[in-house]
Amino acid sequence: MFSKSSFFPKICFLVFFALVSIISCKKRPEKKIINQGNSINNIKVPKGFDFSNTKTLDFTIQGDPSGAVYELFAVSKWDKANDAAHLMNSEKRKLYTLRSIEQQNNMRVCVPKHFKHIMLVRYSPKGFQERFFFDIDDSTIQFDYTPKNQRQSRSEELLYGVNANKEFFLFDLNDMSVEELPTIPCSSIACTVNPFSGEVYIANNLPPYDLYAYEPVSKEFEKLDNFDFIFPRMGYNGFEDLLYFGSNNNYLYAYDVDQKLVVDTYQITGLPLGGGGDLCFDDSGQMYLVDRYNVYRVDIENNSAVASKINTQNMPLGILTSIGIDKSGYAYISEMVNNGKIIKFNIEDGTWEYVEISNTESIANQINDFGMFITPDLLDPEGDNDNDGVINSLDAYPQDASKAFKNSYVDSGETATLAFEDLWNSKGDYDFNDLVINYNYSTILSPNNKIVQLDIITTVKHLGGSLHNGFAIELPVAPSFIGSVNGGLKNSGLINYESNGIEADQQDKSVVVVFEDDRVTEGKTYVVSVMFNSPLDIGGFDYSQFNPFIFLTESRGVEIHLPNYMMTNLGNTGLLGVKDDASNLEQNITYLSHDNLPWAINVMYDLELVQEKIPITEAYLKFRAWAQSGGTVYDDWYMNIDGYRNTGFIMVE
To answer: 38: Cβ–Cβ under 8 A, 6 or more apart, which residues?
Structure first.
């Protein structure tokens, strides 16, 4: 018999069972497994550790008031003891550019701590390059400049020639007569000349592929280096002070003779395979090349050397072996025949003609390679459109005589990252994604190394928190030095400004507000330009003294800074040392918790985001060891290296 009392419980049970069955058929969200070995909990960090990934380096150039331009690079690694070492396999970052106009010139730069070496490139007023290398063993490096010994004995154009029979010749371009020189110590199909020293570099075309230098005054040969392969193409770029040599597989290598180091490698495109031939440079540093049958102009573009054929008529049927270019723009080309003639090629129109060697009895065999010597005083300096003393190729502003160089915190095209926990002075979840800002600073220098402008470039990469925050930077200059501040986002109406655009009521230092409320900024880029009442000395204005911070939009006194940086005049110091904050002003410790953990970190790279609620130690597996060591190990913890990341905890952008 139907029972109402028994029916309803059965119905309820069936409905409940059905719902459970439906829910159980759905895919459950994957549970994040926290590796307690890398947890932020119980991490033991040395007291006062500032969590800095950068170091400040003072670099001094002594004894070179010539007006030369210097560029400073950080280099991650190289092996000077390894002849096959390739500097191009190392990471390089441009740090600074200035013009050496004083007896002592100083640069202060910020360098990621995992960089261990410095490369200094000197450009003479005519644009000739030299390179110097240093290990970063201390926070200061001094470079004492000594001019290269100019040993050339003639002030004219000289054309050298070698061949596989160890014969060595010098051609007089006026009458095409030939002088026999001492027998070379090896069979050779490649030679070139250093325009500064006058040395002739000669390559052995047999194993172990030695490189020799011939000194024309002493007439002696010196073995410099050896290589793993034959290189029939060789030329010296006087402007870069680099020896270029090319292999038979269309690769091109830039080699620093003094350092015995390959600094760049390029693959030549636009050139048929087949090897042979030669390369050379004209007096402007332009590269030219011959293969077996044609003549090419070669342009360096990024990591590629692009070859474009320039001969407008067919070259002789004999295989081309060598090329050298004189001051007038004529190339001298040899063939794999001994016919008493040299090809004279017009670079401008691509035509050619034969010229006769006047004393052919001096040459019993073919010429396998030419090397052209043009003394530096015959080379034309590059143009200087604004007449500021800096040639166009080194001038970031070639049409503006008031500006010359642009020095950025991180290299052009790169970005640094500031990542914040915004619950200060209470602990957060340490995913460091409440507010993440990509940024860069650029200071613009005059030709006399004075700072005339500062640009602050920011992009809000991610908003993971719920609070409304603004972002500002305290600069190491008094408010009276600031002429104007332009750009940024002023959208809250809660910040007061002076007439020049800096934040009002800041007494000792200038505060530039980039944006007041981050809620409308995500993904947007802001450029703030700061102009000065008069140019600043570079010595008192360096990026290590910049103090970036966020503030609570509706409570301006709540500021969050990087560890051990101080509040501004408008910060509420009563919040320091309260709750989870363990700041101690007497010990210059700020913005560190009782566990010595920060609320903000700075990385000179584009830091990839950690997923919500995942401590940074779970995503970046070397962060914990780095922090606990006080920064002595894994100073590259943020890099994308095998074993450094748990990619499952990195946010997909």
So the answer is: 617, 618, 621, 624
The 10s digit of each residue's pLDDT in 536-586 is: 998 778 899 999 999 999 999 999 999 999 999 999 999 999 999 999 999
Nearest CA among 445, 418, 470 for reference residue 602: 418
Total Cβ atoms within 10 A of residue 496: 10
Asked whether the beta carbons of 94 and 73 are under 8 A apart, the reply is yes
Please, which pLDDT band fits residue 260 given cuts at 50, 70 and 90?
A: confident
**What is the dihedral sign for C-alpha 367, 370, 373, 379?**
positive
Q: What span, in angstroms and rounded, lies between the C-alpha atoms of 238 and 158?
A: 15
d(CA 190, CA 200): 10
Helix (H) or strand (E) holding 188: strand 188-193
- Tell me the per-residue pLDDT of 594-619, one tens digit each, with 9 for 90 and over: 999 999 999 999 999 999 999 999 99
Burial of 418 (0-12, 13-18, 19+ CB in 10 A): buried
Radius of gyration of the CA atoms of the chain, in A: 33
Q: Tokens 């030695």 sit at which residue?
A: 210
Looking at residue 8, its pLDDT comes to 40
Query: Encoding tokens for residue 7?
Result: 């029916």
How far is 352 from 335, CA to CA, in rounded Å? 13
Residues contacting residue 354 through CB under 8 Å, at least 6 positions apart: 341, 342, 343, 344
> Which one, of 197, 196, 415, 193, lies nearest residue 325 by Cα?
193
> Hunting for tokens 């109402």 — which residue is that?
4
Tokens standing for residue 421: 């926990």
Please give the structure tokens belonging to residue 373. Answer: 């010597």
Across the beta sheet with 140-144, the strand order is 104-112, 54-62, 140-144
Residue 166: the pLDDT is 92
Cα dihedral 497, 503, 509, 510, rounded to 10, equals: -90
Which 3 state secondary structure label does DSSP give 483? Answer: strand
DSSP codes of every residue in 552-598: ETTEEEEEEESTTPPP-TTS-GGGTTSTTB--BGGGTB-SBBTTS-B
Residue 275: band (very low, low, confident or very high) from pLDDT cuts 50, 70, 90 = confident
CA 608 to centroid of chain Cα atoms: 20
